[in-house]
Design brief:
Layout: E1 43-44, E2 50-57, H1 67-74, E3 78-85, H2 88-101, E4 108-112, H3 113-122, H4 141-145, E5 157-169, H5 170-175, H6 182-188, H7 193-206, E6 212-214, H8 217-226, H9 245-259, H10 271-279, E7 282-288, H11 291-299, E8 307-311, E9 319-326, H12 334-344, H13 347-357, E10 360-361, H14 370-373, H15 385-394, H16 405-422, H17 426-441
Parallel strand pairs: 2-3, 2-4, 6-7
Antiparallel strand pairs: 1-2, 4-9, 5-7, 5-8, 5-9, 5-10
Length: about 450
C-alpha cells in the first residue's frame, strides 16, 4: 500500500482526490490496494509490441489517474503493467537482492526517499543516468539532488514530495476555546513547534473529555526533524543523530508532549489511530501533503467539515516523504522505459496523479496547472491545499540524507511510542533507540 510506505517511521499514502470539482466522498484509500498483475517477461513480441513493467510499493497513482491506459493510447505498441508490493519494507530488501543478482528487475523501479542515499552510494551503476533525458531544473531543486551521484548522474526522476502543514479539528478547537480560523491558528504556532506545544497546553485546559491535542509525539518528532537541513547524517556521510540539534529538539519536544499528556500515544496508521480519528478524539495531526486523505478516510463522513488545514508551525518549511522512478540498466527495454519515466514525471502527469490520489508533485511545472493551483479540499472546509503545499514546497531546505535514514527514524519513533504508551522514561527510551540504531548502521 502506498499509504504504507512504512519506511522511516511512517505508513504512507492515502488518496486525497482534492482538486476542483471533486469531493471527499470520492477519496480512495491507497493504503489497502492489493498487489496488481505482474508481467512474466518483457521485450517485444513477434508483432513488435512491447510490455513495460513498473515495480513499486504502495500506490503511486498511475493506474488511478489512468496514465498507463493513456500511454497505451499514445503508443499502441506499448503496454504498461504494474507490479505492486504493498509494504515498502518488503519491497526494498527484494530490490536489493535483485540488484545484487542482476536479475528479476522490472523495466522501471520505484525508490523511496528514505532509501535513495543508500542506492546512490552503493548501486548507482545499476541504473540509467536520467540527466541525459530529463531536465532536472523542472523539479524543486533539492528533490533531484537527492538522486544525484557525485559525478552528476541522476538515477531517479522525482515523483512526489510531502510538504508539511498542520491539520486540526475545528470542532474540538472550538470546544476548547481556541481559534478555528486557519490564519489565527497559524499565528498561534508561528514561533515553531515549541509554540505548538504551548497551544497544546491551552487546548488541554478546555479540552472535551477523552480528547487529546495530538495523535502521536513520534509524528511530531518526524515533522520537527524534517524541517531541518541536517538530520541524521552530516555532509561527510557520518551518522550524527546522537548529536544532531534537530534530533535533540524533536526528542525533547516529544518527551515533553508525552509527559504532559498532550498526546493520545497512537502510532500512526494503526487500528487504534484510525479509531481515534473516527471517534473524534484527536485535535491535531502533523500533516504532510499525503496525510489529509488519510484523515478524511479514517475520520469518515461524520467528521466532514470538522477539520481544516493551516501552515506548519514556525517559519521553516519541511518535507516528509517522496519517491523516485529509476530505470535499471539490465532491462530489456531501457530506451522505452526511460521515455516512460520522463512522461510519467512530466507536469501534466504529476498533476493528474495529484488529482487522482492527492500525492503532491515534485515537478514545479505542475504547480501552475489548474488541477494543482486551484485545488481545494472540501472535507477540510475547502482548504486551499494547492496553494499551501506549493508555497511550502518552494522553500523546503535541502536536507543531508544518509544511507540508513529510514532505520534511524523508525527506531527512534518506536521508542517515542514506548514513552507515550508504556511510560518508558526518556533516558531509557533513548538508550534503547541508540542501541538498535548502532547495531543497524554498524
Amino acid at each position: 500500500m502506498r499509504i504504507t510506505r512504512t519506511v522511516a517511521g511512517r505508513s504512507r499514502r492515502v488518496a486525497v482526490l482534492v482538486t476542483t470539482g471533486l469531493t471527499a466522498s470520492a477519496l480512495l484509500l491507497t493504503g489497502c490496494s492489493s498487489d496488481s498483475d505482474t508481467s512474466d517477461s518483457t521485450g517485444s513480441d513477434a508483432n513488435g509490441k512491447i510490455t513495460l513493467t513498473v515495480a513499486d510499493f504502495g500506490q503511486f497513482g498511475y493506474k488511478e489517474a489512468g496514465l498507463f491506459a493513456k500511454y497505451h493510447e499514445l503508443h499502441p505498441n506499448m503496454t504498461v503493467k504494474e507490479d505492486v508490493t504493498s509494504d515498502e519494507k518488503v519491497y526494498y530488501p527484494k530490490l536489493l537482492q535483485q540488484l545484487n543478482s542482476g536479475s528479476g528487475l522490472a523495466d522501471v523501479q520505484g525508490l523511496e526517499v528514505g532509501r535513495i542515499k543508500e542506492i546512490v552510494d552503493t548501486k548507482a551503476n545499476s541504473f540509467v543516468d536520467l540527466s541525459k533525458v530529463i531536465d532536472v531544473d523542472e523539479w524543486v531543486s533539492w528533490k533531484e539532488k537527492q538522486a544525484t551521484t557525485p559525478d552528476g548522474a541522476v538515477i531517479g526522476a522525482g515523483t512526489d514530495i510531502g510538504p508539511m502543514s498542520l491539520c486540526y479539528n475545528t470542532d474540538l478547537f472550538k470546544k476548547a476555546g481556541l481559534p478555528t480560523d486557519p490564519t489565527e491558528v497559524a499565528q498561534k504556532v508561528s514561533g515553531g513547534w515549541e509554540d505548538y506545544l504551548k497551544l497544546g497546553e491551552e487546548y488541554k485546559k478546555g479540552a472535551a473529555e477523552g480528547t487529546y491535542f495530538m495523535d502521536s509525539a513520534s509524528a511530531m518528532f518526524n515533522a520537527v526533524v524534517s524541517s531541518n537541513a541536517k538530520q541524521y547524517y552530516d555532509e561527510s556521510g557520518k551518522a550524527i543523530y546522537k548529536d544532531s540539534p534537530s534530533v535533540k529538539q524533536g526528542w525533547d519536544l516529544a518527551a515533553e508532549a508525552a509527559s504532559k499528556k498532550l498526546t493520545q500515544g497512537l502510532a500512526q496508521f494503526t487500528d487504534p489511530w484510525k479509531a481515534g480519528l473516527r471517534k473524534g478524539t484527536i485535535a491535531t495531526v502533523a500533516c504532510p501533503a499525503w496525510m489529509a486523505g488519510q484523515i478524511s478516510i479514517n475520520a469518515g463522513d461524520a467528521n466532514k467539515g470538522k477539520w481544516n488545514i493551516t501552515t506548519a508551525p514556525g517559519a521553516t518549511a519541511a518535507n516528509w516523504g517522496g519517491s523516485f522512478l529509476a530505470v535499471p540498466k539490465s532491462g530489456k527495454n531501457v530506451d522505452e522505459a526511460t521515455k516512460l519515466v520522463k512522461w510519467l514525471t512530466a507536469p501534466e502527469q504529476q498533476a493528474a496523479v495529484f488529482k487522482a490520489i492527492g500525492v503532491f508533485p515534485s515537478n514545479k511545472g505542475a504547480y501552475d496547472l489548474p488541477d494543482v493551483k486551484n485545488a481545494k479540499l472540501e472535507y477540510f472546509n475547502n482548504a486551499p491545499i494547492g496553494q499551501i503545499y506549493a508555497d511550502e514546497a518552494k522553500s523546503i531546505p535541502e536536507t543531508v540524507l544518509g544511507p540508513k535514514d529510514g532505520v534511524i527514524k523508525d527506531s527512534i519513533s518506536t521508542q517515542i511510542n514506548n514513552m507515550e504508551q508504556r511510560g518508558t522514561s526518556p533516558d531509557d527510551a533513548w538508550k534503547a533507540a541508540t542501541n538498535v540504531v548502532d547495531k543497524a548502521i554498524g
